[in-house]
What we know:
Elements: H1 5-15, E1 22-27, H2 38-47, H3 56-67, H4 74-83, H5 99-120, E2 123-128, H6 135-147, E3 153-157, H7 183-193, H8 201-211, H9 215-227, E4 231-233, E5 238-240, H10 253-263, H11 265-277, E6 280-282, H12 283-289, H13 294-306, E7 310-313, E8 320-323, H14 326-334, H15 338-355, H16 357-362, H17 364-373, H18 377-393, H19 397-411, H20 418-439, H21 444-455, H22 463-480, H23 483-500, H24 503-520, H25 523-536, H26 539-544, H27 553-567, H28 571-588, H29 591-609, H30 615-629, H31 632-648, H32 652-668, H33 675-688, H34 692-709, H35 715-729, H36 734-751, H37 754-770, H38 774-785, H39 795-812
Parallel strand pairs: 1-2, 2-3
Antiparallel strand pairs: 4-5, 6-8, 7-8
Amino acid sequence: PGIGKSRLSQALFESISHDPHVTIRCQCSPHHVNSPFYPVIRQLELAARFEPNDTSETKLNKLEALLAPGRPSPTDAALFAALLSIPTGRRYPALSFTPQQQKNHTIAAVIRHLVGLARKQRALIVIEDVHWCDPTTLDVVTRAIEAFAQVPILFLISFRPEFFPLWLDRSNVTMLQLNRLGRDQALAMIADITGGKTLPADVCEQIVSKTDGVPLFIEELTKMVVESGFLQDTGNRYVNASSLPAPTIPTTLYDSLMARLDRLATVKDIAQVAAVIGREFSYRLLASVTPTTEALLQGALAQLTAADLIFGRGVPPDSTYVFKHALVQDAAYSSLLRVKRQQLHSQIAATLEAQFADTVETQPELIAHHLVQAGMLKPAIEYLRRAGKRAIERSANAEAIVHLERALELLQQLPDDLVEKQVALELQVMLGQAMIAARGYAAPETTNALLRAKDLITDSTDMSQRFAILYGIWACYYVGGQADLQQVAAAEFVAEAERHGDTGTLCLAHRAMGTTYVTMGEFAPARRHLEQARELYAPDHASRHPFHYGQDIGATVLCYLSWALWHLGHVEQAAKVATEAVQRAEAISHPFTLAYTLCHARGMMDVFRRRAEDTRSYANTVVSLCEEHGFPFWAAGGHILGGWAATCQGNVEAGVEAIDRGLAAWRETGARLWLPIFLALEAEAHAKAGRSDAALQAIDRALAMSEETGERWALAEVLRVKAGLLLASDPARTEEAEAALVKSLETARRQQALCWELRTSCDLARLWQRRGAEKDALNLVRSVYDRFTEGHETADLRAAEALMTSLAAQAVA
């Protein structure tokens, strides 16, 4: 702080003032670190010259004039209006995006606008104090850096050392680290502030020594000394006044700033009230909370401006002001007694509520800040809840989490009665919702938030809220790879649903239980529950609660039913149900449901059937869909499936790289779901690349993961793959391979997984064939093949038929 970041930015503005260019300047704020898009919104409001009494129509006209040079599309104009919370009526096309889509499209529109301006005229874009930047605006900055690489834009970003930028590895980025000034530079700065007049040597030495090269401290201390009255101006230099003692030099920047404020005694109280409002404050709000006349207030602001402590913009009553530096505001704020600060915060909150409706609507977190500082916790919690809700609606989930966690923290300080428990439940449910979106189901924080919500459920809890919590907990265990806890949660869900008898909830409960049985490799009970869920599913119920559980329930039921049917050997029925799932997902046009369904009913079904011809196409669709809408979990799945298809089609190295990248991204979400089968695919890919050691390590990790998580639906296949890898690495490892195949066969039989059993039987038969046991091999394969009643044209059954023909011929010979 005070090292000169803002001053150097200002010097840059001044140095290019005569060169044709566009300047856009954004300022981050410590009071808005969790206000999505705050610096962007504030810059647009200032640039468009919005006035407090402007109608929506006037604001839209001003906004259009501001955006006109970039020639925005009607959709972009609508996105900017929504960003600024301006009602548009029928002026622009309606926006029908999900919150995540709207956030992404808004960021893209902002960047398009800036790039469009720069293509007409060179642009200087500055965003200051990024250490106070909200996560959504940071996303804008990160994407903008990439977009600006090919256009004439200088993008200047300032921040303190505690902030670590993630874009330093970009080729178009350079970092300038500001250091403290040396002695000669400090002396030059002192001379500049005094207008070239020299100070007494001892005074000058004290300033240099105590300021330690911090430019703001040098500036403030020098001004304090000159204004102190302890020195006499002789025309070309200052000397100690003979009748006064030598000036006492403050030892800290804070002391220096306070000394300057104290000498402005008549206006110090105005500076203090302004500091309570914030780094930036409006004349209207300051006038509303300051008991003085307009003439005295304007005079005080003029004095503070002349003293270089604040900067003004506009003419009262429509003017706004900003403290020269955050440290100046801090000094003025901390000089107030705690009781007085609380009174002012309370007064400011009340004034904002009564007179500034737009601020209440668009910045509820600001009202909450003042209420917290005033000690008014209960209304503060309500405003934080509003802030969290608003952030979730804008898909600003990182900001929502901060608001909601703060609200819950404050709630703990209130009396523990029933009303507050209901508030806590709502906050925990919202927090769980934000956690799921921001960090995924597998994150421990998500599970903890939902478990805390569950503890707050009472008999009066709304049914939809109750089941959203129970489903969320089940999903956390499912994605996180905790099969035992998943089964407990599913059973509890089913029992609760049966107790209430709601058809839609029963459908979801049986879907959860059916999916749980699939996870555990118990396909027969899985099929029963999933078919029951299919019978209970009612599209009209789903339309009343669209995507309440992340994706369409009907599509998810069909996905897992197709899995259960395939494993049980009903391969044609499975294919038909999988197709029905995809058709439903495409018909309802819900991006998350479509990504989910393509991964389950297309990608994974192709893996089961070892049919990779179309998989890359589906995988690419999933990845592009997820990148557009912000679904990192399924995007990772798309990369893995696409990598597997690439290896199957001969593009082995690219496939291995895609699988590895996808696995890293999958794990990054905290998910352990499907890792056994994914690691088996990785093992096969390494084997095709000739890396047998890496392949065996991957398959051992797959088996360990299956044991650790309890996810056993692919265990028979993983064991079969291991047997093949053992033989490929060393043909002499026949006994190990046979043991793995026998264990695979036993697992498949126990699970009634007929398709896995057939595949393993064929591999084991080929092993027996090599040692001359053709008859035993033939009997083994035939005993499995004859149990299939459909799917005889599929690859696995045709391969089994060919093998039996070969074995029969050899047995006769």
